[in-house]
Amino acid sequence: MTRRALSLSAYLAYARSASAPGETPDWPPRPSGPLVWGFAEDRETGRALASLGARLTAQRPEVTVWLSGRVPSRPGLMTVPMPRDMAADDLRSLRQLRPDVALWTGQALRPGLLSALAESGSHMIALDLADAPFPAEAPRWLPDPAPAVLALFDSLYTTGPDASRRLRRLGIESGRVHDATPFLDTEAPLDCSDGLHEEIASLIAGRPVWLAARVRPDEARDVLMAHRQASRLAHRLLLILAPADPADADRIAAMLRRDQMRVCDWENGDMPDENTQVLLAGGPDELGLWYRLAPLAFLGGSLTTGGTGEDPFEAAALGAAVLYGPNVGAHLGAYSRLVGAGAARIVRDGDSLGSAVSHLVAPDQAAVMAHAGWDVISSSARLVDRVLSEICDTLDARAED
């Protein structure tokens, strides 16, 4: 028995001794067809797993997908409790469920759970492995179980070459380690009418345009202040303002009237002309159109005190450079990845938003950021395609056995 195997055995022996009695999770009966079980460490990877699962079931309706951890509810996917790592009853039941494929995300390892999946015969895939330590709940006097646990995986997809080198230094076979990218949500881009897009694009051709998307009423004042400030340098600048809630459109329209701004009221059938300063949308329903027209987008819910922000990938996927405020706790990982790629920039208030718009509304400036954002989205989409191909090949091979 190797040293790594001994380290895992020592952890499992400790886990059995430390196991506290508890009620076994109420998992549903195992489906008769293929079962894929995904485990999410955080909200961002949970969303990405849900999107992957939705694509898998669309391609393979006979496959059942279970998701555990920090995952959103999605039609057609089943959310089930996370097995406890140090509960013998949980792990015994887990072995009996025999998932065909197990998807694991992130650094935090659960050696008991993962060893039970391996013993059940699951094809195991790890995603989003970064160049960082792999913590496991174990006393310091135990040998580190991480190398032995990582060796249980059939495929390990990292966030880049540095993370791959870390795995190889831990003794993981090179053939199992794949240089990849962060595992991100890859929902299909928001749709819009091609004819309408062409019509509006022709009406505003040659004008600099920016978008304030999903804006809350208490942010509208900062957005309008920023637009006035940026318009001093770009006199033909057009703002497309889309409230988060259609019910807020009238309140924002009143602000625009008080400021004596020339407004195109989209919900009333108005069309923008050369004199329009603000196109007021009725809500977020047509963001697919607005993102395609505006190379620069501020995302609302981020300047609001107590706000949690909006998903920045829906803007980046349609070629918009992203501006956002400091309150984006619900999507912090997504914003951090876009910032790291140079595709997003933070602002603090109306004044800094105006300065950012003045600088970035120039086509060449926005294009650099937009291209960086597209690279992030497209790289993750390719990763999802690779993982889906591996899952389908595994299920096909098992069906032939």
Automatic annotation (TrEMBL):
<keyword id="KW-0472">Membrane</keyword>
<dbReference type="GO" id="GO:0009245">
    <property type="term" value="P:lipid A biosynthetic process"/>
</dbReference>
<dbReference type="GO" id="GO:0005886">
    <property type="term" value="C:plasma membrane"/>
</dbReference>
<protein>
    <recommendedName>
        <fullName>3-deoxy-D-manno-octulosonic acid transferase</fullName>
        <ecNumber>2.4.99.12</ecNumber>
    </recommendedName>
</protein>
<comment type="pathway">
    <text>Bacterial outer membrane biogenesis; LPS core biosynthesis.</text>
</comment>
<dbReference type="InterPro" id="IPR039901">
    <property type="entry name" value="Kdotransferase"/>
</dbReference>
<dbReference type="GO" id="GO:0009244">
    <property type="term" value="P:lipopolysaccharide core region biosynthetic process"/>
</dbReference>
<keyword id="KW-1003">Cell membrane</keyword>
<comment type="function">
    <text>Involved in lipopolysaccharide (LPS) biosynthesis. Catalyzes the transfer of 3-deoxy-D-manno-octulosonate (Kdo) residue(s) from CMP-Kdo to lipid IV(A), the tetraacyldisaccharide-1,4'-bisphosphate precursor of lipid A.</text>
</comment>
<dbReference type="GO" id="GO:0043842">
    <property type="term" value="F:Kdo transferase activity"/>
</dbReference>
<comment type="similarity">
    <text>Belongs to the glycosyltransferase group 1 family.</text>
</comment>
<keyword id="KW-0448">Lipopolysaccharide biosynthesis</keyword>
<feature type="signal peptide">
    <location>
        <begin position="1"/>
        <end position="20"/>
    </location>
</feature>
<keyword id="KW-0808">Transferase</keyword>
<keyword id="KW-0732">Signal</keyword>
